[in-house]
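Sanity check

After download, print the first record. It should look like this:
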Amino acid sequence: MWILILLFQISPPLKVQVFDTPNDKGGSISIEWELSPDDSLLSYYEVFRKLSTEEYNLIATPPPGSNRFEDNSTKDGEPYWYKVRAVSPTGYTDSEPSGPVVSSAQWFHHKRWNALILGIIFCSFLLYYIKKAKIKKSLFIRKISGLEAVDEAVGRATELGKSILYLTGLSDMSEISTIASLSILGRVAKKAAEYGTTLIVPCYDPVVMSAAQETVKQAHMEAGRPDTYDESKIFYLTADQFGYAAGVDGIILREKPGAVFLQGYFFAEALILAETGASIGAIQIAGTPATTQLPFFVAACDYTLIGEEMFAASSYLSKEPTMLGSIKGEDYAKIIIMILISIGILFVTLSNVGILKSLAFNFINWFSSF
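Expected structure tokens:
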């Protein structure tokens, strides 16, 4: 009987290696082994794990032909031991225990050098242009038609003896579009203060209302007209989406402003507001990063700041060196990305006709690891 058992004894997995999984965020240990010489006779492998004070517990059953398993349920800092069992219909054989091994997080992914290099290039552009903006105080940003029309809109409302209505959108202060809108509000409020034109700002959010009040107050002080600042014109309306739309529509129909600014993030009420403004003949300047609402603004408003143009406008109007430098740095980084994409398209095209195949493969492979 013992002779039969020895005859059918299968060979165990060989050279079992356990190590902390590289380039991960921790909580993972890799187990690798050489296949059992009797791999073709096996039903499956079994991977066991234990802590120093525990018995071995089964954690996985890889099929025959497998020589690797990744244990993603470890606790960083705890020592683990592993062994791999070869299981056949006639019995099983265990490898020698391996360990201890401890999992930990790596601070850098060694296969992501491409992201590091592009990140350094991007940050270099930002820092260079921010520094340049601080030295020169101004950087060239191409003219945006909607931005150029701000003075025209304020001037027309003044000539008609009508008020100006400014909407900051339906998002709160955590949204970058709201912050950009407040920067544009500062410019509009300053012009309105210089011309002595009434500015009305109904707000969707009470925190945005407080920020808008401070922005308009500061604009009046910069214009040398602090006495004309009227806090009651910047007020909280409601936080209900269509209640806000109905309230603003009522203001538009009663006050009949000469200019309407819709700057910020808008939702389904965008078309209602823009159509109501158009119905009274007001000059309207809209700006939003909400791509779903842009067609409505383009159709119903005189000028529209599309997507990033709104952020560029706020940077241009505020003259803040950090914001101006960021806009310029982003533009040049985008140019670099477009050049790289063009090179990739050229390489792929050439490789399809049998030219530069290896170079095209290496170039595309460099980007594919992002």
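If your output differs, re-run the checksum step. Summary of this record's structure: The mean pLDDT is 87.
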